[in-house]
Every structure is written in structure tokens, then in C-alpha cells.
Amino acid sequence: MASKLLQLQKKAADATGYAAKHGNAYYKQLMEQNKQYVQEPPTVEKCQLLSNQLLYTRLASIPGRREAFWKEVDYLKQLWKNKEELNIENAGIAALFGLECFAWFCAGEIIGRGFTITGYHV
């Protein structure tokens, strides 16, 4: 166990050294490639403005997403009424919709536990 800890420490030290040596060049390259996304001037106030714009834009999109959700639910209701005409494609769509609902439920549970999988919070 002690030898594995020493190996891990050595790998961490190597990674830190590599980051210290090449980190500045990587940062400059990354910023150069993505300069079209940088707002001028890059200040705290500008970041706060962008954060507020993102929040309220997402809030404004809720009615449209809600409407799309209810259209999908209505479509599924129609499929259920006409289930004798159900084909493989429509069954697959219904299964994917159910899987998506389950995935959102699981994501909500993880978020509710503070982004932990097991519920153990450090």
C-alpha cells in the first residue's frame, strides 16, 4: 500500500511539473483560439452581466420548452389511444421518451444530494 502511495505521489509531482512548464503556453494557445468568445473589457462587472443574461434567457425559454413537453405528452396519449396501429418506430420513440424522463429523474436526485452518486457528502 505504501509503495502505491509513493507511486501516486511521484505521478502527481510529474503532472505538476509538466503543468508548471507547459501551462502558460497552453493557456495562451487556448485564449488565442477562443478570442472571439472573450468580452471586452474582461471585468467582474462584465462577467456578472453575462451571468444575468444567461439566467434570464434560460428563464425566458421555459414557456417554449414547457409547450414542447406537452406536445410530446399529447403525442404519446394519441399513440396510446391508437396502440393497435403502433409500429416499431413509434414504440422506439415512446421508449426513448420514457428513458429520457427516467434520466431527468436520476439527474434531479443526484443534484438534490449535492452532486454525489451515493449520497455521502464530504
Automatic annotation (TrEMBL):
Superkingdom of source: Eukaryota
Major subcellular location class: mitochondrion
GO terms under cellular component: mitochondrial membrane; proton-transporting ATP synthase complex
Localization, UniProt: Mitochondrion membrane
Alphabetical UniProt keywords: ATP synthesis, CF(0), Hydrogen ion transport, Ion transport, Membrane, Mitochondrion, Transport
Example GO biological process: ATP biosynthetic process
Family indicated by similarity: Belongs to the ATPase g subunit family.
PANTHER family to which the protein is assigned, alphabetical: ATP SYNTHASE SUBUNIT
Official protein name in the record: Mitochondrial ATP synthase subunit G protein
